[in-house]
Amino acid sequence: GQQLNQSPQSMFIQEGEDVSMNCTSSSIFNTWLWYKQDPGEGPVLLIALYKAGELTSNGRLTAQFGITRKDSFLNISASIPSDVGIYFCAGRPSGTYKYIFGTGTRLKVLA
Amino acid sequence: KAGVTQTPRYLIKTRGQQVTLSCSPISGHRSVSWYQQTPGQGLQFLFEYFSETQRNKGNFPGRFSGRQFSNSRSEMNVSTLELGDSALYLCASSPGQSSSYNSPLHFGNGTRLTVT
Predict the structure, then answer these.
(1) Which of A95, B44, B55, B91 could be B23's S-S partner, Cβ–Cβ 3.0 to 4.6 Å?
(2) What is the predicted pLDDT for the residue at A39?
(3) Is A40 in contact with B109 (Cβ distance < 8 A)?
């Protein structure tokens, strides 16, 4: 099925470091969502973006809706061990009600 | 407000059997979407129901079917199970109306299906 390109696939970082991940698409999206999934649980919504250029924060997390409407990024500042998990982006293409998910970024934080 | 509830959490079935999974959306949400999650393929969209009607469908074979009841609860059925159907099946709800197309999806914790 159709998927977004999400990178990196995985990353190991030291506690306290900042983290950045992004998603790109060949299609224009009207909505970008960022989720975190812990083992054995469903994805939990972190940030929702609705307008090109929008920059939204949620605690140590900041996400932006790209100007071209074809990309989005998520930053995590001063990472902590509980940030470990898989982060997914999801986008809703213009003219549809179906969300498409990225392949996920697996984050591991070394204490 | 209670979240999205999926039952059962775990299922073990053998090839050829069929299975039914259940999802109760957040109160007031009328749209329910189903996704299959596997390590190799990520989150793949199965179908979406709104007001008891299938509104969107992914690229899965006809063995995968669903329905939605008048109270917005939804069930998903997989018939003639294959080994490759082993996955985490996630349900997500949202308000669903055209006025809220941008509303994000809220997920349940999924049903882990193992086919042996």
Answers:
(1) B91
(2) 87
(3) yes
Mutate to test the interface with A, among B51, B105, B114 (most CBs of A within 10 A): B105
Count of C-beta atoms within a 10 Å radius of residue B80: 11
| Chain B residues with beta carbon closer than 8 angstroms to that of A32 | none
Give dist(CA B82, CA A68) in Å, integer: 42
Measured between CA atoms, the residue of chain A closest to residue B41 is A103
Contact B35, B89 (CB under 8 A): yes
Quote the Cα angle for B78-B97-B72, to 5°.
40
Q: CB–CB of B102 and A42 under 8 A?
A: no
For the beta carbon of residue A21, count every other beta carbon within 10 angstroms.
Answer: 23
Mean of per-residue pLDDT scores for chain A: 92
Q: Do the Cβ atoms of A98 and B56 come closer than 8 Å?
A: yes
A23-66 pLDDT per residue, tens = 999 889 999 999 999 988 999 999 999 999 999 999 999 999 99
